[in-house]
Design brief:
Blueprint lengths: L2 H10 L6 H14 L6 H15 L19 H4 L9 H7 L4 H6 L16 H7 L23 H8 L5 H5 L4 H12 L3 H12 L6
Keywords: Calcium, Heme, Iron, Metal-binding, Oxidoreductase, Peroxidase
EC number: 1.11.1.7
Family: Belongs to the peroxidase family.
């Protein structure tokens, strides 16, 4: 693993936070049940609880998954990135957010998926060559809730994350967005998907 690749992987996923909370929970559990509860299960339960605290229905989490014994930065590079194209996202399951606002596809324009009424506000919050640590709500409508509003945001051009916006570029994923934006099925399917994702790689 070269230093350049390690730096690139860190940059691509630098928004992933909360590791210290997982480690703290692991240490506390180890004092009561040493060698029983894995970090993988703690992460799954933390995700469930975070979603519930944000207003979404609570779902059951399967326990018993063990932690892996090998860490791979190469495998981490296969994780979906916020700037991936729909083709890349589909095959897995660019450079910065500023590019979507000011230099989309190496032009001097913005991502055409942005709602024209939304673009000036984003540019105000994220000026060109501004502070890269500025954080903006992924959902401008229900900022402090986890719900299916993101689907309606994507449909109307209010998707903040590039990979969300790309879902409306492809006719198959566009149908999925339209389906969830129009109904109430997303909560149930989200819970099912989280449980199924927790089974990936379990032998």
């Amino acid at each position: 693993m070269t230093a350049l690749l390690r730096t690139e992987l860190t940059r691509r996923h630098e928004g992933v936070r909360g590791f210290e909370q997982i480690e703290k929970a692991k240490q506390e559990i180890e004092t009561q049940c040493p060698g029983v509860v894995s970090c993988a299960v703690i992460v799954a339960m933390a995700a469930r609880d975070a979603v519930a605290l944000a207003g979404w229905p609570k779902y059951a989490v399967e326990s018993g998954r063990r932690d892996g014994r090998v860490s791979s930065l190469e495998l981490a590079s296969d994780m979906p990135d916020v700037n991936d194209s729909i083709e890349t996202l589909k095959s897995k399951f660019n450079l910065s957010y500023s590019a979507r606002l000011y230099e989309f596809n190496e032009t001097n324009d913005s991502d055409p998926q942005f709602n024209p009424k939304f673009l000036p506000e984003l540019r105000r919050m994220c000026p060109k060559n501004g502070d890269i640590n500025v954080r903006i709500p992924m959902d401008q409508v229900t900022k402090d809730k986890f719900d299916d509003q993101i689907m309606r945001n994507i449909k109307k051009g209010f998707a903040v994350i590039a990979s969300d916006a790309r879902l409306y570029d492809d006719h198959l994923t566009k149908q999925v967005v339209d389906f969830y934006a129009a109904g109430s099925q997303f909560a149930l399917d989200f819970a099912r998907a989280m449980v199924r994702m927790g089974r990936i790689g379990v032998k």
